[in-house]
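Why do we care about 3D structure at all? Because function follows from shape, and shape follows, mostly, from sequence. That is the central idea of this module. The next example makes it concrete: a single protein chain, its amino acid sequence, and then its structure expressed as tokens.
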Amino acid sequence: MTDWVRRALTRKRTRKSPRGSLVVEEANEKLVYTVKFALGMTVCLSAVEVANIIFLRSWNSDVFSGITTLIGLVTGILIGQQA
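And the structure:
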């Protein structure tokens, strides 16, 4: 499986030159690991929320707050990296 997180965070630009060379800026390793961790924690917290709904039959607003925070973090990083 290809590393889709690294590919999403990699910038590709074409410089204005006679040959129109393509410049590829690789993503920072810390940034890639941060995004992977945030995505993994979002999946885990979503599983906790689903288990809470199924077994306890109640909504946990603290877990949902964590999920929305992590989703905002990942979205902000991906949008900010593309600018």
